[in-house]
């Protein structure tokens, strides 16, 4: 079982047991939405429930678009990926469902015909696939998928799938030793609250939707930026660890409906969510932060029900007293 994050000097506070309502623990928030992004940097899917795996939600960032050298394409360099719609069978988010020969990942894009990628695993292996610091082999989805993305992006591309049978991509051991991911940027889950989005939109001339920040778990019912402080939470009897505040790149500045980047919300985040403003050390003062990265603390071995659902209560069991004490 993976080890817990290193202390990093944080002072974790146990939430007092007196926080009870009618004999039951008082919930701190509710799961308002769950999002899964099957192809990294392409459009997400809003689902009513998601299956937990040791690598994150099932299907999340399992596929990746790469260039001719095997290097990952993301919205940072190919914002058109924001317009690629990805669909999975509705039953793919149910417990114990396995794909059949007629199960497909369906991909759509502006001006493009529909692409159907079989969910049965391909036999071809692509070596030298890389995303950020990781390099390894992946499963190649074939020439039809390669031509689709090459035509759409206007440059040689291929679609690959993470090869869980042969490859391991670890989370940064400084924050969550022993945990693993597929093609996510760095952590299995990203949590953001409605309160935080509302606070940001209160500073913007034009409000933005949560899809700019691409979370997996979107919660409601807590104060703005409460999630900064959460180091341990429970959702449907599963324990998640808050291991690192999410530093933000240029992706939130890309309109997910048009694929066009603008100055916001990056400029506003610099004004009230920079490391300097929230009290971080000199090294992190120029970064901006929005959301909390999570890992699953529990082992799933022997667990029959492995889903979390929209509407599930969120209970905070450990927290730090201020954002300046959070891991970054």
Automatic annotation (TrEMBL):
Limits of the MOSC domain: 157-317
A GO BP annotation: monocarboxylic acid metabolic process
Pfam family, one: MOSC_N
GO MF assignments: catalytic activity; molybdenum ion binding; pyridoxal phosphate binding
Domain of life the protein comes from: Eukaryota
Descriptive protein name: MOSC domain-containing protein
Species per Swiss-Prot/TrEMBL record: Trapa natans (Water chestnut)
Organism phylogeny: Eukaryota, Viridiplantae, Streptophyta, Embryophyta, Tracheophyta
């Amino acid at each position: 079982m993976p080890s817990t994050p290193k202390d990093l000097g944080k002072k974790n506070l146990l939430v007092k047991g007196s926080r009870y309502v009618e004999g039951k623990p008082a919930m701190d928030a509710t799961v308002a939405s769950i999002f899964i992004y099957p192809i990294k940097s392409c459009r997400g899917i809003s689902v009513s429930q998601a299956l937990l795996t040791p690598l994150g939600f099932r299907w999340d960032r399992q596929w990746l678009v790469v260039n001719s050298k095997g290097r990952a394409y993301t919205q940072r360099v190919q914002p058109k990926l924001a317009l690629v719609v990805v669909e999975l069978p509705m039953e793919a988010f149910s417990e114990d469902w396995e794909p059949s020969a007629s199960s497909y990942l369906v991909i759509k894009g502006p001006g493009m015909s529909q692409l159907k990628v079989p969910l049965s695993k391909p036999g071809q292996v692509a070596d030298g696939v890389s995303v950020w610091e990781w390099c390894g082999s992946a499963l190649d989805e074939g020439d039809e998928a390669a031509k689709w993305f090459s035509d759409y992006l206007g440059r040689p591309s291929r679609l690959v799938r993470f090869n869980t049978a042969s490859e391991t991509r670890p989370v940064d051991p400084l924050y969550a030793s022993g945990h693993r991911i597929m093609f996510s940027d760095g952590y299995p889950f990203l949590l953001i609250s409605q309160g935080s989005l509302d606070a940001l939109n209160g500073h913007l001339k034009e409000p933005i939707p949560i899809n700019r920040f691409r979370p997996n778990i979107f919660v409601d019912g807590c104060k703005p930026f409460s999630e900064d402080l959460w180091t341990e939470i429970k959702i449907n009897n599963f324990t998640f660890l808050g291991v690192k505040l999410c530093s933000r790149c240029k992706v939130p500045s890309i309109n997910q409906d048009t694929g066009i980047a603008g100055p916001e919300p990056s400029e506003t985040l610099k004004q009230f969510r920079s490391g300097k403003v929230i009290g971080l050390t000199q090294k992190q003062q120029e970064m901006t932060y929005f959301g909390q990265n999570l890992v699953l603390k529990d082992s799933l071995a022997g667990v029959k029900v492995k889903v979390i659902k929209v509407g599930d209560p969120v209970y905070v069991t450990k927290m730090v007293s201020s954002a300046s004490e959070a891991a970054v």
